[in-house]
């Protein structure tokens, strides 16, 4: 379950805009 | 140049295009107990870009976290037909990268009509500006 949470967090972060 | 916080008031997309805007909006949603709406929206965007080998596992993770429990804020705002469609896709070995698109549109609608206008009137935003 932990790795599923990590995968989800990684996915959410990947969709956020990068620092300008 | 226009300060970022004025840009945030132009549209939800302007807000979600700025790291600091996202942070402040998320703080507001946390206060309101609905930060999952924003996390789900980003999860759907990230899902489209995820490599095929991770996609099946990620689809299950998103489904379990936000949709399967009908009492959660995200699940309550998504139409029954959309949830059935997602449930069918989740079981497949190679889920469609666009499988969460309809659900994302529905959640975006909730934010545009509800939480985003409330955010712009909130103490949190007004104090920031």
Characterise this structure.
The complex is a heterodimer of chains A (about 20) and B (about 130). Chain A has about 20 residues and is mainly α. Chain A contains one helix and no strands. The mean pLDDT of chain A is about 85. Chain B has about 130 residues and is mostly helical. Chain B is elongated.
Features:
heterodimer, A: 20 residues, mainly alpha, 70% helix, B: 129 residues, 0% strand, elongated
Rg of chain A, nearest Å: 10 Å
Measured by residues with Cβ under 8 Å of the partner chain's Cβ, the largest interface is: A-B, 14 and 22 residues
Tell me, briefly, the overall form of chain B.
Answer: elongated
| Major β-sheet annotation of chain B | none
Structural class of chain B: mainly alpha
The number of strands of chain B is 0
State the end-to-end CA separation of chain A: 34 Å
Order of helices and strands of chain A: H
Large-scale geometry of chain A = rod-shaped
**So how many helices of chain B?**
9
Question: Could you tell me the number of beta strands of chain A?
Answer: 0
Q: Strand-residue fraction of chain A?
A: under 5%
Low-confidence stretches of chain A: none
Whole-number average pLDDT of chain B? 96
Estimate percent helicity of chain A: over 70%
Termini separation of chain B: 15 Å
Secondary-structure content class of chain A: mainly alpha
Number of helices of chain A: 1
Summarize the structure.
The complex is a heterodimer of chains A (20) and B (129). Chain A is mostly helical and 20 residues long.
What are the SSEs and their pairings?
The complex is a heterodimer of chains A (20) and B (129).
Chain A: H1 2-15
Chain B: H1 4-7, H2 12-15, H3 19-32, H4 35-49, H5 52-67, H6 73-77, H7 80-90, H8 101-121, H9 123-128
């Amino acid at each position: 379950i932990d790795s599923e949470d990590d995968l989800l967090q990684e996915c959410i972060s990947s969709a956020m805009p990068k620092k300008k | 140049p226009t300060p970022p916080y004025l840009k945030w008031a132009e549209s939800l997309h302007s807000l979600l295009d700025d790291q600091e805007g996202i942070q402040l909006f998320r703080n507001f949603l946390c206060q309101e107990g609905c930060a999952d709406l924003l996390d789900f929206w980003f999860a759907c965007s990230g899902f489209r870009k995820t490599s095929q080998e991770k996609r099946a596992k990620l689809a299950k993770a998103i489904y379990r976290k936000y949709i399967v429990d009908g009492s959660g804020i995200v699940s309550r705002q998504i139409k029954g037909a959309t949830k059935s469609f997602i449930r069918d896709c989740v079981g497949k070995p190679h889920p469609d990268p666009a499988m969460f698109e309809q659900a994302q549109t529905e959640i975006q609608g909730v934010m545009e009509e509800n939480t985003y206008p409330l955010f712009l009137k909130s103490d949190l935003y007004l104090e920031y500006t």
